[in-house]
Design goal:
Elements (H helix, E strand, L loop, with lengths): L15 E6 L3 H14 L9 H4 L15 H4 L8 E7 L5 H8 L4 H6 L1 H5 L4 E2 L21 H18 L4 E6 L16 H9 L7 H11 L4 E3 L9 H10 L2 E4 L6 H14 L3 E11 L2 H6 L2 H19 L5 H4 L3 E8 L8 E9 L5 E9 L2 H21 L4 E2 L22 H15 L12
Length: about 425
């Protein structure tokens, strides 16, 4: 059944430029994957936009189109890639260095990947202590750096004949810092940029530059960037969609799948111990306590939101939740997420669950980058702006658009995402009684 007020969504015509601050393992895996799919040598597994379906009406109607056929999304052939990085390796060199993809696959895409070289990055070693920038911008102030980024964006759009742009942060995790007065309002933030305030992080400069130009921006790391008052104010002013934060890939993905199941069956949890072992650049960065703190806060927020211990104190009120990340170079990008879960059931009798997820971090993140780029572009063409809470499905610590906290249950998030698409297209949302 259709409603009477579908959104007026501008069709996805022309080229969509995808700008990536941080062109390391995740970004090059994403870019190479898109080229491989274009060539017909791989499938876009993990992408809801490319492979997912959406049910319309009742289950008995058997009306289940592909999401791509239901809403107007940019095609993979429409995408043009660019971005910034601390190292000047082109995407071919960076993909080989990352070691995520089979060398034969990377070699088969050498021409396409070699043609993409990063622009010099905005970098501050105080925010990413384990890396040293070799390919970075210099300027008289942080505002000058932001202006250089805006010049990059406008030049990229012109040189590549892009009709629209979208940005997805794929860079490193910055050290954790609490927001200060400079982050509260746009006026204070812009003054802070002019004065090169120490509390303004590189990721915030990228967010400012993109949103100032109306480029939809998604934060794929646990950095504090689009979740500050100043940037949200700017997004409202420029009518730009924003979303964040932190791609939901390995261990946290498992938590948002398992925890809703335990809660649905009213099984109690005494403790949940999680450790991660990884050896890529992300692991090296997270070996620094300050950067780990940012990631820890992002990862710890999930269980409390899903389990609601205030409503179920007998089951989850005493839950002990611990998260660890260990840098182990031999693993490379093949992250191991190990969980020990102490649960209890009828009459309080204890049980244990062990999960050992031998995952590939960038392989899980790449389709998220694709979906967020396509959906953020869709949001812009639908006239949406500000926090896109319906994209929480992809994020560890999603932003909430209103006063209530964001939802972390993966299955509720998926329903919200699909219902948003249904509502925009003038269809009735699917209720729990009709879910299927």
């Amino acid at each position: 059944m259709t409603t009477s007020n579908p959104k007026q969504v501008t069709p996805a015509k022309g080229k969509l430029g995808v700008l990536l601050p941080g062109m390391g393992a995740v970004a090059t895996t994403f870019i190479a994957g898109v080229y491989a799919v274009r060539k017909g040598i791989a499938q876009p597994v993990g992408s809801l936009c490319e492979m997912g379906t959406i049910r319309l009406g009742k289950r008995t109607d058997n009306n289940v189109p592909k999401i791509r056929d239901y809403v107007s999304l940019a095609t993979l052939d429409d995408l043009v890639f660019g971005g910034w990085d601390l190292f000047e390796d082109n995407c071919y060199q960076a993909a080989l260095e990352a070691g995520v993809l089979n060398k034969d696959l990377v070699e088969s895409l050498k021409d396409e990947l070699s043609a993409i070289s990063p622009m010099p990055a905005v970098f501050d070693p105080d925010y990413v202590k384990r890396l040293r920038g070799e390919h970075v911008k210099t300027g008289t102030s942080k505002m000058h750096l932001a202006e250089q980024l805006m010049e990059d964006i406008e030049r990229f759009k012109k040189e590549n004949a892009c009709d629209r742009l979208v940005a997805v942060w794929c860079g490193s995790t910055e050290v954790y810092r609490e927001p200060t007065a400079v982050h509260a309002t746009l006026k204070a933030f812009e003054e802070g940029l002019r004065n090169s305030d120490d509390e303004i992080a590189p990721s915030q400069i990228y967010a400012y530059a993109c949103i100032k130009l109306g480029v939809p921006y998604c934060n794929g790391a646990p950095n504090m960037s689009v979740d500050i008052g100043a940037i949200q104010e700017l997004a409202r002013e420029t009518r730009t969609p924003i979303a964040g934060k932190d791609f939901k890939t390995g261990q946290t993905l498992m938590k948002t799948i398992l925890a809703p199941g335990f809660k649905a069956r009213m099984l109690g949890i005494k403790g949940w111990f999680s450790t991660n072992i990884l050896g890529n650049r992300d692991g090296e960065v997270l070996d620094d306590p300050g950067s780990f703190k940012s990631k820890e806060i992002s990862k710890l927020s999930v269980l409390e939101s899903v389990l609601q211990p205030d409503k179920y104190p007998e089951l989850y009120g005493d839950l002990y939740h611990k998260v660890r990340i260990n840098y182990y170079p031999p693993h490379g990008d093949n992250k191991e997420g190990w969980d020990n879960i102490d649960i209890f059931g009828w009459l309080g009798y204890p049980m244990q669950i062990k999960v050992d997820f031998l995952c590939r971090d960038s392989i899980l993140a790449a389709p998220i980058v694709l979906d967020l780029a396509l959906f953020m572009d869709l949001a812009a063409r639908a006239g949406e702006s500000g926090v896109q809470e319906w994209l929480s499905f992809y994020l560890k610590a999603p932003q909430a658009a209103g006063e209530t906290g964001a939802e972390h249950d993966l299955f509720i998030q998926q329903t919200k995402l699909k219902n948003t698409l249904r509502e925009w297209m003038g269809e009735q949302p699917v209720t729990h009684s009709e879910a299927g």
